[in-house]
Amino acid sequence: MMTPRLQVIADNVLKNESMADIGTDHGYLPVYLMEQGFIPRAVAADINEKPLRKAEQLVARSGYEKQIETRLGSGLSVLSPGEAGTIVMAGMGGYLIRDLLTESPEVAASAKRLVLQPMNNAFIVRHFLEDNGFLIINEDLAKEERRVYEIIVAEKGEMSIENDLDYLIGYEAKRRKHPLLPELIDRKLELENKIIEHTKNKQTEMAREQYQKSTAIAAALMEVKNGCKMQ
Ligand SMILES: C[S@@+](CC[C@H](N)C(=O)[O-])C[C@H]1O[C@@H](n2cnc3c(N)ncnc32)[C@H](O)[C@@H]1O
């Protein structure tokens, strides 16, 4: 079943190119892309057997067993360089996505496009992309139930992210006009305010630094949020 989040991810997958869905779980994405005729073949991979079995069953029901190969394994280790035009990594933490890309640099660099949807710590993913020769070509947001998700689309290239806020809420200036941006900012503000509350009376240097950093981030987020309201 395609959800709004998976739909945004699907919309950013390159047409007529093979794709790999790393951490596929249910396998909805590759099956949908095949059914729509958007891709010629796919690899649906997962580190855990149980989710991979779910994907296998869905692939079998869809009749695309020849075109969608399921593979058991961690991250990009299941792929050879150049095998996937688009690599999708969705529904995992930002640190895990960063680590899996770092562990298989040749495979990551050989993809024409990465579509990444970190569940948290998206700033780590943006730092990784900037430091490893990727250019963010699109960023989008999707809402499911009460949660807003960040989708980051990157290709090989160079970029220089100018300020901390761009790591936190998105590299592209146009993203700042996204209708879901105020909700994303609210969520990030909530997290920063928790840190502020937690560190405000602590005396260690680390806590003081964190307090100052989070206070500055919260102020910057408020500024963007107020700017969004005025548009
Ligand atoms: C929350 S599900 C996301 C499923 C799907 N990608 C989506 O966005 O709806 C995360 C999946 O990632 C898988 N996973 C976790 N660590 C992984 C790794 N190192 N390599 C491959 N898959 C992994 C889990 O087994 C799980 O099925």
UniProtKB/TrEMBL annotation:
SUPFAM superfamilies reported for this sequence: S-adenosyl-L-methionine-dependent methyltransferases
Gene3D superfamilies linked: Vaccinia Virus protein VP39
Xref: InterPro entries: SAM-dependent_MTases_sf, TrmK
GO MF term set: tRNA (adenine(22)-N1)-methyltransferase activity
Protein name as it appears in the record: tRNA (Adenine22-N1)-methyltransferase
Organism: Eubacterium callanderi
Organism phylogeny: Bacteria, Bacillati, Bacillota, Clostridia, Eubacteriales
